[in-house]
Amino acid sequence: MTWEIVIGLEVHTQLSTSSKIFSGAATAYGAEPNTQADAVSIALPGVLPVLNKGAVERAIKFGLAIGAHIAPRSVFARKNYFYPDLPKGYQISQFDLPVVGQGALTIQVEPLSGSGKPYEKTVRITRAHLEEDAGKSIHGDFHGMTGIDLNRAGTPLLEIVSEPDMCSAAEAVAYAKALHSLVRWIGICDGNMQEGSFRCDVNVSVRRPGAPLGTRREIKNLNSFKFMQQAIDFEVQWQIDTLENGGKIQQATILFNPDTGETRAMRSKEDAHDYRYFPDPDLLPLDITPAILEQVRATLPELPQVRRERYIGDYALTAYDANNLTASREMADFFDSCLNEIGTPNAKLCSNWLTGEVTAQLNRDGLDITQCPVTPQQLSGMLARIVDNTISNSGAKEVFRTLWAEGGKADAIIEAKGLKQVSDSGAIEALVDEIIAANADKVAEYRSGKDKLFGFFVGLAMKASKGKANPAQLNEILLQKLAG
Amino acid sequence: MSPTIFLANADVRKVAILARLSMDEAGIEAARSQLSGIFTLIEEMQAVDTRGIAPMSHAQDVSQRLRADTVTETNQRELFQSIAPKYQGSPQIEAGLYLVPQVIE
Question: How many domains, chain A?
């Protein structure tokens, strides 16, 4: 009998404000310990929180991007628990009245095992709420003590909670990637996973088809998509094995160890934290008027989903190409800039180069598209020479390598390296005649039915032209002359 | 009026654990009795008909003021750490960190 996998995600995104959610301390990453921990961050008695407008605007922006209801009035609550990196003894969060209500995100799923085709799926988002981040505990060598750095305490977070709509590791990863891309696209989070700007908690359970939901275990704090996939795969197998061996799943919070590829229980939820939520008396309700909503809406860029559909509908790109181009706003903008230069009829050519050669070279050099040494203008200048048949594909690759390494302009490089392809049919015919004359035996073999020799002649002719013959033209003339 | 919500000593013990309070049996009994008094008050309030009245989340019916997203605080680590809790006469500070007893989960 088969098992069904049920997965839901809670994602903590650090909002890209300059100051903290409830105070004017800086949020920059990597500062010396506690140099950005002001009186509010360290919870000195008598301090009061004052809400950051930038954090509220970013939350609204996200809500609008997922088509969610934005609460006209939302409330901050205290979530009480004791931990040294939370000096107040409670975290200011939102509970029953979050700022962002139910929305949805459409994702493109690429099956991981290589089996099956990519497909589209819509994942419902339950809610998203504003809260403050905690500080960091450092378990170093402090004579048996723990060091506390409160620089991160009070950094604004938007916690985005999904419905348990995903049923494989592939879907969970696709959702997390789509969300990661979206928050960067709309400019509310830098998405830096190494620095903890985007952290995922994954709830996993299994059940027999049609049965009620199984007991879930929550994998905490995954900060890479690869680990997420490994952790889910391991956890699912563990739960299935446990159940098939007659065991029961206990609700628990678990950690993934990337070194062993295994998950282990952190704390049992039996003794679940009773957070004793209640409205924070230090903060008044947050009112979001239609005017504020419209102000924020005006700052929203064209969304990835809309742009993807535009690329498919207007430029006849495949869904696959459109996905790759809209993986980040910077990539999509680069593509649009190129099209501005060489025109939309060349969208396919441009897409092929961006998702092919350009992406490959970026990956080799460990760069992202914003660091691409070749500008859209430079790339377009080269693409235009492919379009008007001045250079062949192999010539183009050489121009591209030069642009990448040395910069410059395509036309000057073509000139300097003599890459202009020969499209003069007289010159190509002469070249072909010579080859036919010099290889009478092979020509005879070809004419008696050895078609495969065609490639041999193409190779000779290309070599004779020093790679500059227009390939299409060369093929045509060769075919003609070889036919006799 | 006697409360319909009955608070047992076990409930008080649980709340004490959550609040990190150490209480002896006499203290628990005293707290139970006081908390029961509060529940009686809540019972009285719950008897009021509140149909059609939107719940308030704050005693004042005004809304949250927002501050602009600008950095206004400077580094005052030295000042704050000079008043950090001391242990055997010296503040529990090292490498800019506040030191606390180890918590392991």
Answer: 3
* Distance to chain B for A75, nearest Cα, Å: 7
Statement to judge: residues A235 and A280 lie in one domain: yes
The span from the CA of A311 to the CA of A326, in Å, is 9
Q: Considering the domain boundaries, does residue A298 fall inside one? A: no
- Of the candidates A226, A235, A230, A227, the one whose C-alpha atom is nearest the C-alpha of residue A206 is A235
Quote the CA–CA distance of A117 and A109 in Å, as a whole number.
9
Q: Does B42 touch chain A (CB under 8 A)?
A: no
| CA pair distance A70, A290, nearest whole angstrom | 10
Whether residue B97 and residue A287 make contact (CB cut-off 8 A), yes or no, is no
Query: How would you class A133 by CB atoms within 10 Å of its CB: exposed for 0-12, middle for 13-18, buried for 19 or more?
Result: buried
Domains of chain B: 9-46 (1.10.20)
**Min distance A62 CA to chain B CA atoms (Å):** 18
Element (H or E) spanning A51, and its range? strand A51-52
| Structural domain ending residue among the three candidates A377, A397, A417 | A417
Any idea what DSSP says for residue A453?
A: G
Task: State the residue range of the domain holding A390.
Answer: 304-417
- Put simply, whether A16 touches B (Cβ < 8 Å) is no
Which residue in the set A42, A56, A142 is minimally distant from B66, CB to CB? A56
* Tens-level pLDDT at each residue, chain A (484 residues): 799 999 999 999 999 999 999 999 999 999 999 999 999 999 999 999 999 999 999 999 999 999 999 999 999 999 998 888 999 999 999 999 999 999 999 998 988 666 678 899 999 999 999 999 999 999 877 888 899 999 999 999 999 999 999 999 999 999 999 999 999 999 999 999 999 999 999 999 999 999 999 999 999 999 999 999 999 999 999 999 999 999 999 988 999 999 999 988 876 544 456 888 999 999 999 999 999 999 999 999 999 999 999 999 999 999 889 999 998 999 999 999 999 999 999 999 999 999 999 999 999 999 999 999 999 999 999 999 999 888 988 889 999 999 999 999 999 999 898 888 877 778 888 888 988 989 989 898 998 888 888 989 988 888 888 778 888 888 888 888 888 7
| Selection from A132, A76, A110, A7 nearest residue A323 by Cα | A110
Please indicate if any CB of chain A lies within 8 Å of the CB of B16.
no
CATH at residue A471: 1.10.10.410
Place of tokens 């939350």: A59
Whether residues A327 and A206 share a domain: the answer is no
* Residue A164 neighbours by CB distance under 10 Å: 18
Same domain, A175 and A257: yes
A394: part of which helix (H) or strand (E)?
A: helix A393-406
Tokens of B19: 């609040």
User: Helix (H, G, I), strand (E, B), or coil: what is residue A55?
Assistant: helix
The bridge status of strand B66-67 relative to strand A51-52 is: parallel
- Boundary-marking domain end, from A367, A387, A417: A417
With a CB cutoff of 8 Å and minimum separation 6, the contacts of B54 are none
Beta bridge partners of A148: A137, B98
Measured between alpha carbons, how far apart are the two ends of chain A, in Å? 67
Q: How many angstroms separate the CA atoms of A241 and A231, rounded?
A: 15
